[in-house]
Amino acid sequence: MDMDIPLPDELELLESDLHLYEDYLEPEVYEIEVDEEKRDKESSGSPILQSNSPDFSSAALNSVTESSSENGLKRLRSDDADVLRDSVLDDVEPSGGKRSRTDKPEVENEEDWLRYLPPTENNSMAEEETNLAVKEKTVFRFVSEIDGDFIPITAPDSDERVYVKLSRSGDKEESKKLDLKERHGGIMQENINVLLERAEKEALTKTLEASYDTQLDAMPPQEPVMHERLWVDKYSPSSFTELLSDEQTNREVLLWLKQWDSCVFGSEIRTTSDEVLSSLRRHFSMAQHHKLSSLSSTRKNKFPGWKAGNFRDSTFSDNKEGTTEGIQDTWSKKSRLPSPPEHKILLLCGPPGLGKTTLAHVAAKHCGYHVVEINASDDRSSSTIESKILDAIQMNSVLGDARPNCLVIDEIDGALGDGKGAVDVILKMVSADKKAERENGSKDQPGKRSSKKGQRSVSLIRPVICICNDLYAPALRSLRLVAKVHVFVQPTISRIVSRLKYICNQEGMRSSSAALSALAQFTECDIRSCLNTLQFLYKKRETLSAEEVGSQVVGQKDISRSVFDIWKEIFHTRKLKLQSRSVSKSRNTCDKLEHLYSLLSYRGDYELILDGIHENILQLNYHDPVMHKTVKCLEMLEVSDLMNQYIMQTHQMILNVYQPSSIITIHRLVAQVQRPNIEWPKSYQRCRALVLEKMENLRSWHCRVPPLISRHINSKTFVEDLVSPLLHIISPRTLKPRAMHLLSEKEKDDFTQLVNVMVSYAISYKQIKTDPHSNSSRHEATLDGSVFALDPPIDGFVCFKDYESCHNVLALAVKQLLVHEVENKKILQGSNGKLEPLSDAKQVNHEGTRDKSSKGGLTKTECVALSAKNNTEGQKSYSTQHHPSTSTSASDGNSAPGVNLKSSGVRKNPSLGSSSFFDRFRKPGSKGSQTTDSIDKKEITLQRDLRPLLFKFNEGFTNAIKRPVRVRDFLL
Amino acid sequence: MLWVDKYRPKTLDQITVHQDVAQNLKKLVNEQDCPHLLFYGPSGSGKKTLVMALIRQMFGPSADKVKVENKTWKVDAGTRTIDIELTTLSSANHVELTPSDAGFQDRYIVQEIIKEMAKNRPIDSKGKRGHKVLVLNDVDKLSREAQHSLRRTMEKYSSYCRLILCCNSSSRVTEAIRSRCLNVRINGPTEEQIFKVLEYIGKKEGLQLPSGFASRIAEKSNRSLRRAILSFETCRVQQYPFVSNQAIPPMDWEEYITEIASEIMKEQSPKRLFQVRGKLYELLVNCIPPEIILKRLLYELLKKLDAELKHEVCHWAAYYEHRMRLGQKAIFHIEAFVAKFMSIYKTFLISTFG
Asked: For the domain with range A493-551, which CATH number is right: 1.10.8.60, 1.10.3130.10, 2.20.28.120, 1.10.10.10?
């Protein structure tokens, strides 16, 4: 049962011993003899095995496959009648222990049971155990265990590999024998009944085969039909070792598939696969050590306390056979927690014809899966695809093939509308899985887990391989994030040529290596197209020459390339071979131009191509002493631009055919042998985006500026004439950060003027968070990490790279003051515009606030006895009621322009009406008396007004209430 | 308020720079028969001021009461309806707008606004049906379609409204429109005129003007009155009392172009061209119109160039500007000009100095 050690081990080994991998071809040939032997003994076996042998003619092969599959079915049916044990053994037998893993789940149980039975129960088991003991010394699974020379031996049917020690020459023979024994171990152990039955079956098969053969002989016209089988199918690799694609990719795909083993195949595989997984996760050397120790020790005490702590508390009723040993318990529990790989989906992408589909099929088959393929020819609407995927993932076929399914979704990028259904379904499953995992991670209670089990059923429990050509297709965007992505690279030409050569030899077609390599190059290593071309030629003329390949239209692909490839093609020229004569040279250039033309017109996106050229052209290293080439290239770009514009305006798309010509001209001018370093054209788009943004800023600002001014400005004049002086004007050097009352009269005037300008141009400062990278903040970084920036950021219009503008930046204190003043002024203007009728009291209020704000605007008292100065002012404004003219003259004398406006408003309005809120409470009679005998009371009032008592009502919402009122107004 | 706005003449009588034009316009309006008008001239010459004064002359002070509106037009264009948003200034008697802001949809604006105005005509004080005035800015930026649609509507609704068109260059206004309007050319003010205006402002502000200072500003202003007044005020803010040799702060973008020009003169190679491209992008990013960049660049280059090359360089500048206007991506064309200049200059250097 040592044969149960699965492939992941081997894979890991391969990782470490790359060079060994190349050796396997030799032993394979050697092994074939063994295989023949085996075949004689065995019945027809599996179809894979047959197609593997290359010397079979296709016709025979086909018939054999057919008959064998029939046979297999028959055999199974007959097996049904047999006792259970027999069938089990029969299942185990044909391919040795290796195959058993790939069998139905029921078989797994049986095997489990087998393994854990004491050796005394089964004689054959005991026998094998002894065999094992001998074998351990000579045949190894790991190179690391061998300290001398060794030979890797691979069996062609199962691809299992063992390493045979070479240190003792005598042992070699023995080891081979042992190896043989390993293969046929199952047969030896069978009882006579089974063997007899086998012999009977064999006879039946042979007769069947014979009948087929005679049929074929009898009907010769059928032969050419068989012969016309496409070479592509005929020679498609059927085993992992035959794959042409990049080995790194192959191995990674295989490894990924192997990671599913634990989840798909249950515990019997887990013994090692878990170990591999854990070792993969850990450090390599650690893993190595671990493996060694585990092998040296006996199986039973391999993982004495392996994660036991995690599972001990979980109450699981063991639904296996009931073997309740401690170790077994943990194993079975583990099987309840299958751990599929991190990425549940594998996304293979690459250009057509490199063998993606083949790899997926072969790898899946190799790992013992039954491949279910969904491709573009199937109905892929989301409803049907969902049921299909669910079927594939959750069901197993009852008849015949009992292997678990592996879903291969081919051409997933192909159909955008319908193909999206598949992507969505898969994503849904993955996300459901993730959710379940998260739940599991957060709550490790057993109760939760059982409820989660229902959810699990919808999630992915079988490997899914998606295949696409264009990784960056929009439909795959979301899939890309969750899937493990493998990009196929072109295999080397030599590899392809050797394969082609082999096929040519097989088919009896004469061909030269040069011609084949030319063909491979021409088709860009597309093996499918190579083979198709070859077959076509074979039918036609039976020869292939290097010159023909170029001239032949067959096999030429019109794939659209990525725009980067096109830029590369434009800037890059291949070195012409020295031996090419002048005639062929001219033809060559002609061909190249044609090629470029077709490339460009397939792609079509001329504007982007031109942008890319423009972005990169000056970075090239072409020889250009007086810049003639550059001028010419830019001229070509201009022409293209003009053409583009014309086409866009007139919608004459047909003119697009002339677009590539200018690009080809550029190619002729600047193409270099050395590889260009190409960047994506960002700057033009960036420029456009920024311009739009700034224009938007400008427009919104323009709307806020009063129409009297804004009508004279448009965006052009703004940036051309206005910005620079305006910035100078609003940040005068003469303005010192000083308190208001310390400013001289002239400075005060300047300040008011400045505030005026800022208000009329709707400019202010606003607080923003400091951006440590911005240039301006360096001057004025404050402690609290915020700075004042211009509110419509008009200073952005004069900031150029590498240019130091000489604009003065105001000090922070000044800015704060300005912000405050501008706000005040705005409110003032607003109220001025809206509240037309202004009363005396209102004016007092304003005067008061103005004075206060001019002193810093910080003192705010609720019931204030105003100072003497205010007092006189108040008196004056009080007298406004009777003598409007004096009031205006008085306030004109000592007020800023803002107040001017206001007082003019007063002048206009008839101030006699009691428009103030508080005026209503006054007794009209007393007012009248005041007017009549004003001369008498004048002195008294004057006396009283020296120290007026003001009342300010601070609640309420309007300015009509919230203002200081003299107490005497209430008293009168 | 800046001085530019503060000392802007409000009525036709106050206008000093284009006095003759103002008087003619006054006569025109007083005779009650105002044709469509097309004002054209360089920026900063006072077109808009003149137009505003004219409107005030027509309708009196009520024309000053303007409201700003962000209007949205719903236009039925064949199968679908387009929403176009545009800012308009309107008083009771006139509407101002810049249709070219709507981009390629300006055609619908032009048609819609005139029809709308025709629908609700104002009735003037004498009970007669008056007419409204529609002021269109930047007519030269209108698309050809818009100009064509304007041409028909102008005739059809001429009894309802008068059009006043403003533009920088009449050459990009179609012949048809030009022939339907009374064309008024507004020159850029001469340096003496600018000088006089500056002196007037100085007197009003009570400033001491040293001799020659105002004329220096006028000289530097590129015959744009707006710029002259703005830089005058900038000087005032920066340093007062004036000194006769006081530095007049330059426009930032002009300084930047000067830098570019000197870089071009220093070295001519694709590498340098690449650096220049970066700087040109900077200018474009800051919304400076490419025509102005090209013009200024030529101006700066010419200052440093030998006389015998000037003609050729000017020729190529014109050539590339023409292509730029036809094309779409301005950077291609400016860069092509720079490359051409580099090529010419380098060839010249090699031939002269070997």
From this structure: 1.10.8.60
With respect to CATH, is domain A563-681 assigned 1.20.58?
Answer: no
Q: What is the dihedral of CA A373, A378, A383, A386, to 10 degrees?
A: 0
By CB atoms closer than 10 A (0-12, 13-18, 19+), residue A586 is: exposed
Alpha helices in A865-915, H assignment, sequence order: 868-879, 884-893, 897-908
Q: How close are the terminal C-alpha atoms of chain B, in Å?
A: 59
Interface contact B1-A757, CB threshold 8 A: yes
pLDDT digits over A707-754, tens only? 888 888 888 888 888 888 888 888 887 777 777 777 788 888 888 888
Domain boundaries, chain B: 3-185, 191-238, 252-353
As a residue count, chain B comes to: 354
**Into which CATH architecture does domain B3-185 fall?**
3-Layer(aba) Sandwich (3.40)
Query: Do the bridges between strand A950-952 and strand A765-769 make them parallel or antiparallel, or are there none, so unpaired?
Result: unpaired
The two tokens of residue B13 are: 């009588």
Helix (H) and strand (E) counts for chain A?
Answer: 47, 12
List CB contacts (< 8 A) between B271 and chain A.
618
Interface-testing mutation among B332, B334, B335, with chain A (most A C-beta atoms within 10 A): B332
In A443-554, alpha helices (H): 446-456, 477-482, 493-507, 513-522, 527-540, 546-551
Cα dihedral sign, A60-A66-A69-A73? negative
Instruction: Report yes or no: A733 and B157 within 8 Å, Cβ to Cβ.
Output: no
Domain boundaries, chain A: 338-487, 493-551, 563-681, 686-819, 835-971
Question: How far apart are alpha carbons A185 and A162 in whole angstroms?
Answer: 16
Name the superfamily (CATH) of residues A338-487.
P-loop containing nucleotide triphosphate hydrolases (3.40.50.300)
Cβ–Cβ contact B238 with A under 8 A: yes
Distance CA A697, CA A684 (A): 20
As for the ipTM of the complex, it is: 0.90
Helix ranges (H only) for A341-407 are: 356-366, 382-394
DSSP letter for A718, please: I
CB contact under 8 A, B5 and A760: yes
Mapped onto helix, strand or coil, the DSSP state of residue A230 is coil
Q: Tell whether B87 is within 8 A of chain A (Cβ).
A: yes
Q: What does the pLDDT profile of chain B (354 residues) look like in tens digits?
A: 788 888 989 888 888 888 899 999 988 888 777 888 999 999 888 899 999 999 888 888 888 888 888 888 787 777 778 888 888 888 888 888 888 888 778 888 888 877 777 776 666 555 555 678 889 988 888 888 888 888 888 888 877 788 899 998 888 899 999 998 999 999 889 989 999 999 999 998 888 888 788 888 888 888 889 999 999 988 888 887 888 888 888 888 998 999 999 999 999 988 999 999 999 999 999 889 999 999 999 999 999 998 999 999 999 999 999 999 889 899 999 999 999 999 999 999 999 887
E strands along A651-723, which residues?
Answer: none
Contacts of residue A699 in chain B, CB cutoff 8 Å? 87, 101
Q: Answer yes or no: do B346 and A709 touch at CB < 8 A.
A: no
Buried b (16+ CB within 10 A) or exposed e, B109-144: bbbbbbeebbeeeeeeeeeeebbbbbbbbbbbbbbe
What CATH class is the domain B252-353?
mainly alpha
Indicate the residue of A634, A702, A722 with minimum beta-carbon distance to B332. A634
CB within 8 Å of chain A, chain B residues 275-294: 277-279, 281-289, 292
Q: Under a CB-based contact definition with an 8 Å cutoff, are residues A499 and A491 in contact?
A: no
Phi, psi of A402 (to 5 degrees): -105, 10
